[in-house]
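lol so apparently i was supposed to do this last week
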Amino acid sequence: MFSNWENPCSCRPVNASSGRSAKLKTMAQSPPETLVGMDLTQIRDLVGETGGPSEPAFRARQIYQAIYRSQARSFEEISSLPAKLRDQLASRHDLGLPEIERVYDSSDGSRRYLLRLVDGRTVETVLMPEGERDTICISTQVGCPVDCKFCMTAFLGLERNLTAGEIVGQVLEVSGHNRLRRDGGRLNIVMMGQGEPLLNFENVVKATRILLDPKGFGLSPRRITLSTSGIVPKIEQLGCEEARPKLAISLNASTQRQREEIMPIARKYPLADLMAACKAYPLRPWEKLTFEYVLLKGVNDTDADARRVAKLLARLNAKVNLIALNPGPEIPFETPTAERVASFQAIMRRSTPCFIRKPRGLDIFAACGQLKRSVVGQASSPVGYES
Ligand code: SF4
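anyway here it is w/ iron/sulfur cluster bound
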């Protein structure tokens, strides 16, 4: 039943009888690679093919920096290039930035973007400004093959993986549209949008390298977080990457049985294996593991649950983010009371830093698990997040 989890190209529903899973769509081919998403070596090859071997090596660096650091939006804006090379590139290639289809503004300052990709599919990206910090929540897949029962993205199934360019493109488009500053640790990226990032491992890692490259987008590794439902072998693989985001685990249960009910992927990657992978994960000196915990009324929110979670995390350098469920259509759970959430937090805090995440963008359906992809003329498709 779970044999295809590591290969989203042939992913099948967890529960073939589930109405949610029945909506799983076939995986389409990835679109062709665009300039956005290319690393320096690829751009060097492209310049050689386009301008010929006489083009100096620094041309590739000029293009790389123009796209990722200066955030050029067209070849014309790369004024450091000779006009002839610019025209040659423009006639044969696309930068490949996503197009803004719709923007939804929340009264709390959040902005939900519906971005159109080169093949016409759309993904959602959310900007959450707060005080001195801007956070962009990006997607890594169109849809998601993981069938978490509290998440509306699961209704979509997986349409396809995003390319590295489409992952970086969300950051470039939204940060450029809002003229966000990158200095002073102000800008944060969270891979908590649509999709399970570790089931699109190669593209996510490539995008991360570009975002972290000082000559590329230039973010600090402290400013990017990847959240996973617990793809154990890929967690181990991510730990071997030199350029990697911080790791967050979407835990959401205090026992194996409970996790299987809420997140069927736990049958493939049991809680004990997940915790072992977390214990073995090579944290950098400044780093903590983050555990996300969506509280579902009467399901996983009791004091006994809190004590069990505290025990699970006892030997880890970790912090916990609690999220009271943002209810959605067809989600078979309710939101716990504020008192219940506070009681859970108080127990957790005896042993582990524990925070309550306040929902953002509720009025534009941009809060965790609430995003709803909708645009005039297009069927409304629910998406959510908290991978
Ligand atoms: S919570 Fe994350 S991994 Fe689970 S279905 Fe939703 S998007 Fe996919």
